[in-house]
Amino acid sequence: MKGGxxxxxxxxxxxxxxxxxxxxxxxxxxxLFIASTISDNEDLKSMLHxxxxxxxxxxxxxxxxxxxxxxxxxxxxxxxxxxxxxxEMLEAIATQYTILFDESNAxxxxxxxxxxxxxxxLEEKILAKIVSLTGNTASxxxxxxxxxxxxxxxxxxxxxxxxxxxxxFNELRxxxxxxxxxxxx
Length: 185
Hints:
This protein is of the alpha+beta class. The protein folds into two domains: 4-104, Peroxidase, domain 1 (Orthogonal Bundle), CATH 1.10.520.20; 108-179, no CATH class. It is 61% helix and 14% strand. The protein contains eight helices and four strands; from the N terminus they run H-H-H-H-H-H-E-H-E-E-E-H. The chain has helices at residues 4-21, 24-40, 42-49, 55-66, 72-83, 90-104, 120-134, 165-179; strands at residues 108-114, 138-144, 151-156, 159-164. Strands 2-1-3-4 form a four-stranded mixed β-sheet.
């Protein structure tokens, strides 16, 4: 992610301010709304990244879009980004904020890739595996990819657990390649 480190610093500062005011959950909802609005609207994203459009104009567009839907802390972010000439980082900051908010509340989102939609029993097994790997519970976000063949691939933050059949096939293929290797002299 371009500008990841500065976005993380801004997100930490916003989370700190929101905790002081006791409104970190409200700001999290605002940041989710801002990030989804920007990611869903290519024109808005292009406008924020455009070097031709003045920062004051970008700020006025953001205020007109969000002023009645978000709280003051989130609105103040627009002014701060205008002053620091970092308006293009808004989506990255909003995304980083939600990640930090979830981490501070020991809430994780586990991304699970399966060949077919999850059943209740597989979901229970995955939740148990998440607790054994991380010590915390998590909510599950399921995506279906037929190339997995069976089993699942679990991603939590930067941790990945691959219990897919396609991974087992790849491991077997590597073992067979190693055991039957005959060097040419």
